[in-house]
């Protein structure tokens, strides 16, 4: 176990180093000067030259990358020209908001997808199985912006039960939980179908195994067969898939946050990219990759704990 963790942590460090170099190079070698991107298209050449000198952008690329990497390792992520504050402050606030949204959605997606996937997979080809499968395909096929507009049309414009935006501000009379309902609903609808189909496919495969047929032929109750023999084995493959949904819920909900004006991590990256805020995009990319690698490590550990063959090997 210790050797496994050591290898994964070393892989994480190497991945972060490569990503940091690629992100830095992406802004460095794209057309146009960095100072021009910061000041905008209407700045004079004199202002661009002065800012270039102040930021030290006239030095060699390797020197500047080493300096930026050193500051990043010490926790200094730079200054945001868009939000007019330290990147540390804006990243922390936005990531906290997205984690709240992702946590609520994940707490709904996981148990619901397991229940629906197992219910469908227990009796392949039944009416319940087909109904759940069709509903899963339909919800996953609808883009997030479309389902967001559809739900807002019903619950905001028609019924007036919920707010149309989610700025996490109670000044308009809506509570925080009321503001979370629509963004969470869109995320659950979009992501639930994929996880349900993965759990169903794994359950269908397990139900055809010889040990399941043997247990049923011995007269064991069907409920006992499912709970004691099928469930644990059916969850081995979907476990990694379920954990990897955290990547989407934290870093991939740009559309949801943009539709509902939610002050989250994904919307921050979108706004920073459009405004060419180099410091925010660089820091955001590093955090996104770190979350992705950590969830993969957690998925590998969970897979190893659930599957004794891998654990003992």
UniProtKB/TrEMBL annotation:
Pfam families: BPD_transp_1, BPD_transp_1_N. Keywords: Cell membrane, Membrane, Signal, Transmembrane, Transmembrane helix, Transport. Residues 1-25 form the signal peptide. Its main location: membrane. Residues 95-299 form the ABC transmembrane type-1 domain. InterPro entries: BPD_transp_1_N, MetI-like, MetI-like_sf. The keyword Nucleotide-binding does not apply. It is found in: Cell membrane. The chain crosses the membrane at residues 99-122, 134-160, 180-199, 236-263, 283-306. Coiled coil: none annotated. It is a multi-pass membrane protein. Belongs to the binding-protein-dependent transport system permease family. This is ABC transporter permease. It comes from Dongia rigui.
